[in-house]
Amino acid sequence: MKHPDQSTLALHAGGDLGWFGAWRTARHVARCESCRDEVAAFQDMRDALPAWNEIPERAWSRIAGEMRANIRLGLAAGECVRETAAPEYRPPLFGAARVVVALGGVLALLVTAVVMERPTPPVMSAAVPLVQTTADGIQRRAGDRGFALMHKDASDVNYTVGVQGTMGASYVDPNTGYITMTKVYVE
What we know:
Oligomer: single chain
Structural class: alpha+beta
Number of helices: 5
Helix content: 40-55%
């Protein structure tokens, strides 16, 4: 037979167990004499506790006066033996070294901002191929040479641009009614 632990028996004696724990413990206590004796001892102790909580009569005003006198005496004695400490050195808030470091940081920040925000001119060399649209069509140029696909009479042209250097155009030829699609690659 497994006995409940001391804390469970104490809670059962005070009526502080949950309903299932109280039911299970009550069934065990009904069959076990040693556990029944412990529960009775816990109940007796619980009944005796309020009597121990009473405070005996004392002359509280006399005790409070003595405590105030002792505190004043301790404070006065502490003032007599206290050593005076030298004031802590605090450097000036805006010393010369701090100002120089702060101005150097601001100057470095400004130089960095100017260098990073200055636009760099585009580098166009004659050998770099370029695909672009014109008023008459799409052309590919590299230096002084070029290649163009013209669509002069088209009124509604749709252009597409690819990320790998391609450009395309599609339009309806007004003379024939056919859809023409052109695509130019840069290599």
